[in-house]
């Protein structure tokens, strides 16, 4: 006996408990809707809970189907991404000193270049 066959009764019990629990919550929301303090929100919940119970049963059904006949594995023929699949990465263009109109920016860039030269001469330890 396989391990899946041994677990089957436990899964069936879990599905029954889940579906009955969802239906009980639907009944509770329906009684709340019919009460004096009930609102349409309770009605909405009363309609949602049976859908959740149905999903529990459907999930178990799909689980059993996949267990009996697993889906075909995806083909892995493709080994590399074609070059034209993704858009090209834009390249950054740095303006030359002649292109910069702002004198403060030009002065700041010169200061950064000077600091970089000093850093090359005396690297941090």
Model regions low in confidence, pLDDT < 50 over at least 5 residues? none
Rg is 34 Å
| Number of contiguous helices | 3
Q: Could you say which structural class the secondary elements and strand pairing correspond to?
A: mainly alpha
Number of strands: 0
Helix content: 55-70%
Average pLDDT = 85
Basic shape: elongated
> How large is the share of residues in beta strands?
under 5%
Distance between the termini: 68 Å
Order of helices and strands: HHH
What kind of sheet is the major sheet? Answer: none
Note the main attributes of this structure.
125 residues, elongated, mainly alpha
Describe the structure.
The chain has 125 residues and is an all-alpha fold. The protein has a domain at 3-68. The chain has helices at residues 3-34, 40-68, 103-121. The longest helix is centred in the N-terminal third of the chain and has 32 residues, at 3-34. It is elongated. It starts with a helix and ends with a helix. 4% of the residues are buried.
């Amino acid at each position: 006996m396989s391990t899946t066959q041994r677990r089957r009764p436990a899964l069936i019990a879990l599905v029954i408990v889940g579906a009955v629990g969802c239906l009980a919550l639907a009944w509770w929301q329906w009684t709340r809707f019919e009460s004096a303090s009930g609102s349409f929100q309770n009605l909405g919940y009363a309609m949602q809970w049976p859908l959740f119970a149905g999903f529990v049963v459907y999930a178990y059904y799909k689980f059993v189907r996949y267990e009996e006949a697993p889906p075909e594995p995806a083909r892995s023929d493709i080994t590399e991404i074609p070059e034209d699949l993704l858009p090209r990465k834009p390249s950054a263009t740095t303006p030359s000193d002649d292109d910069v109109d702002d004198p403060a920016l030009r002065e700041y860039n010169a200061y950064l270049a000077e600091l970089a030269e000093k850093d090359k001469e005396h690297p941090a330890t």
